[in-house]
């Protein structure tokens, strides 16, 4: 897909981190940007910077997602690009024993479901609604009606202690990539997923330096945290390269996560 000012993109979780970096990289190529996020102040500021539109969207709420797409399409037209970066995590053991009194508790199911609803169901909700919109478009000269990039995690393949919900949600994103690509193959809509390793996002920027140094040292090469623009570069490549389809790609400096 040739990226220029005739192309529109929706980026979920686009107000910060990986999503914001992707928004900036696509905008630099002329793409019109719609940012879906719950962070109004950051989202509005970035949309203004990029000449795009901010839509306050909760990916777990269907009406909110529908309203977001309606606002985005009115402002910048039907998107040909969707990048799903909205997500979150938690760290709770499946079952654990208290060190204080030996009492046993299990992972609260509402906390498990919350992660699944945001990371997996929310991603699929946005894919389905965006793909339906992309199907109304004429193909570009290279045959593309659209391109979708999802965000999973290396935890989809080597989740750590306490990451049962997070790993399940991200493993689900990986698992649905190929079936969705096959669902949409006759419509000229491509679907790929990135599995980031340890990235220098707002989640980690507030961590103590010794923690960040230890995380950096655990990466085989290069021994540092990933930068959001490196994610954005891969997402852009997946969009631009018309033969990139149905793939799940780790972007992690060759790290394989230890149990903890």
Automatic annotation (TrEMBL):
SUPFAM superfamilies named among the record's database cross-references: NAD(P)-binding Rossmann-fold domains
Keyword Oxidoreductase: yes
Matches recorded under InterPro entries: NAD(P)-bd_dom_sf, Sc_DH/Rdtase_CS, SDR_fam
EC number of this enzyme: 1.1.1.36
GO MF, any single term: acetoacetyl-CoA reductase activity
Keywords in alphabetical order: Oxidoreductase
Pfam families assigned: adh_short
Stated family: Belongs to the short-chain dehydrogenases/reductases (SDR) family.
Protein name: Acetoacetyl-CoA reductase
């Amino acid at each position: 897909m040739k990226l220029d000012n005739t192309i529109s993109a929706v980026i979920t979780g686009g107000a910060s981190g990986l999503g914001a970096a992707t928004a900036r990289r696509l905008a630099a190529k002329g793409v019109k940007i719609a940012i879906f996020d719950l962070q109004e102040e950051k989202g509005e500021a970035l949309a203004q910077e990029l000449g795009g539109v901010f839509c306050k969207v909760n990916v777990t709420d269907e009406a909110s997602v529908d309203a977001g797409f309606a606002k985005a399409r009115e402002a910048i037209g039907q998107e040909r690009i969707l990048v799903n970066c909205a997500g979150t995590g938690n760290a709770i053991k499946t079952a654990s024993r208290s060190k204080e009194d030996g009492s046993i508790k299990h992972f609260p199911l509402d906390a498990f479901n919350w992660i699944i609803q945001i990371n997996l169901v929310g991603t699929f909700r946005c894919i389905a609604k965006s793909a339906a919109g992309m199907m109304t478009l004429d193909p570009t000269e290279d045959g593309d009606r659209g391109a979708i990039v999802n965000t999973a995690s290396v935890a989809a393949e080597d989740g750590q202690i306490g990451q049962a919900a997070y790993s399940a949600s991200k493993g689900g994103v990986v698992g649905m990539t190929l079936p969705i690509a096959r669902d949409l193959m006759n419509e000229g809509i491509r679907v790929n997923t990135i599995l980031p390793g340890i990235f220098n996002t707002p989640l980690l920027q507030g961590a103590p330096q010794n923690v960040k140094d230890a995380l950096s040292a655990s990466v085989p090469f290069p021994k540092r945290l990933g930068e959001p623009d490196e994610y954005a570069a891969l997402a852009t490549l997946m969009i631009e390269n018309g033969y990139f389809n149905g793939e799940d790609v780790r972007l992690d400096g060759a790290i394989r996560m230890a149990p903890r």
